[in-house]
Give the backbone structure.
Amino acid sequence: MFVEKVELSVDAHHPSDFPRPLSGEVIFVGRSNVGKSSMLNVIFGKKIARTSSTPGKTKSLIFFKVNDKYYFVDFPGYGYAKASKAEREKFQVLVNAYFERRSPSGIFMLIDSMIPNQRSDIEAFEFFKNFSDTFLILTKIDRLSKSKINEKVSEVEDTFKDAKNIILFSSVSRTGLTEIENILREILKTR
């Protein structure tokens, strides 16, 4: 396993809450209810990221300190209709401040394999790809047939042409975990 030690370090609601950078930093981002917290818990090997059946639960940038060397940063879910305009603007200020002050080693963007490509995913990808290599993770693949997975991969390849890689992932079967860990080793090894 890549993660030998993990702790929730900072729950940043304001830019002044950001911790001092470590040797490397990786962002995890996706629509509300895409399975981001579940995936992080699989990567961590324990339940430390908060999971919820209520979309839009994360309202801050959560910094997990990994192996005392890196931060894994859990970004708020986007595309959640019930978030107020004020909340969305606050998230955007926080995200903009993050990129003004920090340089991530890579970005893992999660996409729900069970629904068509969403405009909010496309817009988010166009934004995030400007800051680092962006790896797409198709979640919940254990719920789809092989032919449906192949259809979704083709759809994603056509839409997200600048993606660094497309990884099939299931938090139930742990499919894709080894591939994610290999990418983490690769993007963090020079840090």
Remarks:
- The chain has a mean pLDDT of 91.
- Residues 26 and 72 are 5 Å apart (CA to CA).
- The two ends are 19 Å apart (CA to CA).
